[in-house]
From TrEMBL:
The keyword Transmembrane helix does not apply. The lineage of its organism: Bacteria, Bacillati, Actinomycetota, Actinomycetes, Pseudonocardiales. The keyword Ribonucleoprotein does not apply. Residues 24-255 form the AB hydrolase-1 domain. This is Alpha/beta hydrolase. It comes from the Bacteria. Keywords: Hydrolase. InterPro entries: AB_hydrolase_1, AB_hydrolase_fold. It holds the Pfam family Abhydrolase_6. One of its GO terms (molecular function) is hydrolase activity.
């Protein structure tokens, strides 16, 4: 497959490890890519069967994703593509919210998305969440709009690990912000605004909600509140890290994920007949 063809594909799935204990599907956030998980994958329990998806809102983006696309539908496409079921879905930031939006939409339609996609557990990493629409204020729009580049800058800085200057990091963050554009930002913020109406009480699979103590974007208190609204969930706030837990503390993150996956019933195990490592699936 040519690189050009792959860049144009909305969803690109990869398999990283072939363990036989529990399957994980990793979903990156806005303007990131599956590379955000590399530190975690390198340190993960080798008995896990780990997959990742590059989604339309990845760094280089897929043309038209923000103005015409069904964003929860693309999450559904990633879930369907994993042979034998998605298992434990680990979703970061914007994708955590889109995953919740997908589940909510299907529950509202009388469907069972957990059985449909083979979901046995959720790990929601740095999600955005509020319980009351009145909790949103005009100041929130200003902060998330005018400081949007700071989230990008934080991710670039963590990924670069000191290899680039602060000035270059800031310049790159502005470029990423401009690639996301007004439509992309609007889709993000609308998804956030919709969170008070999520049917969290119907999301009855085991859930772990993770947040960084120093996260200035998705505040730790919101993660704790989300976990309190889910029937079978617990929140964990990791000290000493911000929005990109999997990159900032990959070993600690891997240990937390292994503990959660290890406590799940055998339904988290992969089915037979899985595709080879590294194969790309639409």
């Amino acid at each position: 497959m040519s690189l050009a063809t792959e860049v144009e594909r909305p969803v690109v799935l990869r398999r990283h490890t072939t363990g036989d204990r529990a399957r994980l599907l990793l979903l990156h956030g806005l303007a990131n890519s599956a590379t955000v998980w590399h530190g975690f994958v390198e340190r993960a329990d080798p008995d896990l069967d780990i997959w990742s998806a590059d989604l339309p809102w990845r760094g280089e983006g897929v043309a038209g994703w923000s103005d015409r696309g069904d964003l929860p539908g693309w999450v559904a496409e990633a879930l369907r593509a994993v042979p034998g079921g998605a298992g434990v879905v680990v979703a970061h930031s914007f994708s955590a919210n889109l995953l919740l939006a997908l589940l909510d939409r299907e529950l509202a339609a009388g469907l069972d998305p957990f059985d449909r996609y083979g979901i046995h557990g959720l790990v929601l990493v740095s999600p955005f969440y509020r319980t009351d629409p009145a909790a949103f204020e005009w100041a929130d729009i200003s902060r998330y709009l005018n400081d949007f580049h700071l989230i990008m800058e934080d991710g670039i800085r963590v990924h670069a690990a000191g290899r680039i200057s602060d000035r270059l990091c800031r310049d790159m963050a502005y470029r990423v912000r401009d690639q996301v554009g007004p439509y992309g930002w609007t889709r993000f913020f609308q998804t956030y605004l919709d969170t008070p109406w999520l049917r969290t009480e119907a999301m009855r699979v085991p859930c772990l909600v993770l947040s960084g103590e120093d996260d200035f974007a998705a505040l730790p208190g919101e993660a704790v509140e989300l976990a309190a609204r889910l029937p079978d969930a617990r929140a964990r706030v990791l000290p000493g890290c911000g929005h990109f837990l999997m990159s900032e503390q990959p070993a600690n993150f891997a240990a937390v994920i292994a503990e959660f996956a290890g406590a799940l019933p055998t339904g988290g195990r992969p089915a037979s007949g899985s595709r080879p490592v590294g194969e790309h699936i639409r």
